[in-house]
Amino acid sequence: MQADVWSPQPVLLTVDLVILTLREGQLCVLLVERGEDPFLGMLALPGGFLNHAGEEILDAAHRELSEETALGAEWVHLEQLATYGDAGRDPRGRVVSVAHLAIAPGLPEPVAGTDAMDAGWVPAEAVLSGEVGLAFDHRQIVTDGIERARTKLEFSALATAFCGELFTIAELQQVYEAVWGTELDTRNFYRKVQAVKGFIIPAGSERRTTGGRPARLYRAGPKTVLLPPLIRPVPSTTEEEEEE
Fold it and tell me: Which UniProt keywords apply (predicted)?
């Protein structure tokens, strides 16, 4: 009896990009307006298919970012986030996406190109809440990317990159609140930040504030890994019940 001859199934590979930054005190995600089917005219993450079989996945991610938003490799450092391959995620067939994440300060306004009709920064909360709908399974990818970013702030000194060279603890707290999406107790935050040696260091100067005492200024310290980490506050039972 002759064994069945196995042949590989056709599977297409794409890259999707979750680019996050802070703009006017809000965590924002970079989205493009699709210029072709499927989902013509809907918002989506920048991304697309590999150009050819020999193109490296990271190279494809940077190429798509540049082609669709004009943001080059000099602006962002991409890292792999996760792989998404549900059978029904793309109406064009079996398409597997390797999603990448970048979190960076001071990113400019994007410029749409190739198959994107428009590109711009959208508040992350509008995507998480479903107020802004996205094509494909991109809302899930954004959700996963934001969770990764929030975790990074717990265990790394990434937040200081979103402050100026000199900053107050209140300004640092605003970064955490924007990314974590929650208000923090000022005294508790101050205590936790001061407990992490090498996270921030005094700059030896102060900044005048209106109607209050001068605020002490700090700069980023040498530590890139936070020990102990700054763990996000757990939502209260009342808040969870209200969300339900």
Answer: Hydrolase
